[in-house]
Design a protein that fits this description.
33% of the residues lie in helices and 29% in strands. The protein is α+β, with helices and mostly antiparallel strands. The protein has a single domain, classed as Gcn5-related N-acetyltransferase (GNAT) (Aminopeptidase), CATH 3.40.630.
Amino acid sequence: MKIQLVLPLKKHQKDVEAFLKVCKQTPSGEMAGTSGAENLSYDDWLHKVYDCFFARNLPENYVPAATFLIYANETLVGFMNVRHTLNTFLEEAGGHIGYMIHPHHRRKGYAKAALKDALSYAKDGLKLSRVLITCSVDNEASKKTIKSVGGIYQNTVDNAQLGTVHRYWIKL
């Protein structure tokens, strides 16, 4: 399986908008790892993504981060967000990495393949020695994915914003 983590560009707008439209129509409407794409115009979202990447004009409580689009061949299958550091909220419940796979492309191995690339970026690009990844207690697919790339369960926390989450550390 060949996937690519791609920094978003203007040329990806139609793919991203179509992706978000389908995800908003799912029962959960969940948007993990999108860096708020569902709440902004595409151009405003691009500015936000690159401001976060270059640590410019960060809102209070934001950390530098890289937001990638996950492509399988020519198809957008997901989003991947890699935070460069942790603040108090991220250390408790958000973690270094958030991701989302399109509902029509789940259970095909894309999350695991993209997560492996994100871990390489964290190790080689960010020089991190370990990363924290969290997931909802009822997200069995994400738990399985995290464990498959070396995630070691640490604990479960209740967070006012994210609810009850499991916390996993991965040594890089």
